[in-house]
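Q: I have 88 residues here and want to know how they pack in 3D. Can you give me a structure?
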Amino acid sequence: MEENNLILKKPFGFNIALPKRTIQQVQKVVKQEIENITVNPFVDFLEESNKVFSGETAQKIRKYQAQIYALGQLMREGQPITTFSANV
């Protein structure tokens, strides 16, 4: 029984010394991955949505609304106004 306890008390895997170059490479890769995960999607979102933030999209919406209103006015002017008469 004591043999099993001795086996468990021996260090396992934690007594390995990593070279400094390996640690530096790992740090570099981790920093790049963290930057890619957090910063790049946010920057991409801002670039894609630039038209919304600058007001170009709102101008286009107002332009299309004015066109629709003008078209509706032209259509209403071309049709005679009919009224309902209860006297038959």
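Q: Anything worth noting?
A: The CA atoms of residues 47 and 57 lie 14 Å apart. The two ends are 112 Å apart (CA to CA).
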